[in-house]
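Hi all, posting the design record for the shared folder.

TITLE: backbone redesign
STEP: 1 of 1
STRUCTURE INPUT:
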């Protein structure tokens, strides 16, 4: 068994099988991607499939995670809220300040599939604005506090992971982090900063995490109850 590190999807597990006749990628129960391929197929065919199938893989991850149930008045991220208004002739979703206003005909509901298709891009826009405003500053502060460094930070929303760190020090953060309590956001940031020193989950890695987050075991458990889907 081997792995592929991808900036968007994180660690992808690769398994070779005598029963496999072609390359196949699926979503594992924990939300990560797993690839299977014939015994003697070169690894680059998996990398090529990932490169040419990003949209399909993103969709697979999103379907695996399931959809958030939206309702009027709910908080979205740290500073936005959803307002649902009925009696309109068509579906629309717009961001006005700290509100995302969803207008619907009387026979529609916020979680109808055609409504979600219009609402979700606006929510992504709002969370991306929040993430870009808060996360880089908080990451830089934590890095200075604990004496670690990183190369750059990038944002995503399609990954099934809260964050990842590449071997060159690029930290990728899911904008869905803005849905989490602040202590869980810090846990993810400290986790990824620790990977700039230890690119594994060894005892040494968790020791680094514990320096920045003494309650990391509790936060790690609580994070498993959340999903990065938007």
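Okay, here is what came back for every position:
SEQUENCE:
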């Amino acid at each position: 068994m081997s792995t592929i590190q991808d900036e968007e999807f994180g660690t992808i597990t690769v398994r070779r099988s005598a029963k496999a006749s072609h390359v196949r990628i699926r979503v594992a129960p924990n939300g990560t991607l797993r690839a299977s391929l014939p015994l003697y197929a070169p690894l680059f065919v998996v990398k090529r499939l990932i490169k040419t199938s990003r949209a399909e893989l993103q969709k697979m991850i999103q379907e695996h995670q399931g959809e958030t149930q939206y309702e009027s008045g709910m908080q979205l991220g740290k500073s936005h809220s959803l307002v649902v208004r009925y009696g309109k002739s068509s579906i629309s979703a717009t961001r006005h300040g700290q509100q995302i206003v969803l207008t619907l005909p009387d026979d529609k509901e916020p979680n109808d599939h055609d409504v979600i298709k219009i609402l979700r891009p606006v929510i992504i826009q709002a969370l991306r604005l929040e993430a870009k405003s808060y996360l880089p500053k908080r990451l830089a502060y934590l890095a200075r506090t604990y004496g670690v460094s990183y190369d750059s930070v990038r944002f995503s929303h399609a990954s099934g992971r809260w964050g990842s760190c590449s071997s060159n020090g690029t930290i990728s953060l899911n904008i869905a982090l803005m849905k989490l309590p602040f202590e869980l956001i810090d846990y993810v940031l400290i986790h990824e900063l620790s990977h700039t020193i230890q690119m594994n989950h060894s005892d040494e890695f968790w020791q680094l995490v514990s320096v920045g987050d003494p309650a990391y075991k509790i936060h790690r458990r609580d994070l498993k109850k959340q999903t990065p889907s938007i």
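COMMENT: Residues 113-146 form the longest helix (34 residues).
Let me know if anyone wants the other runs.
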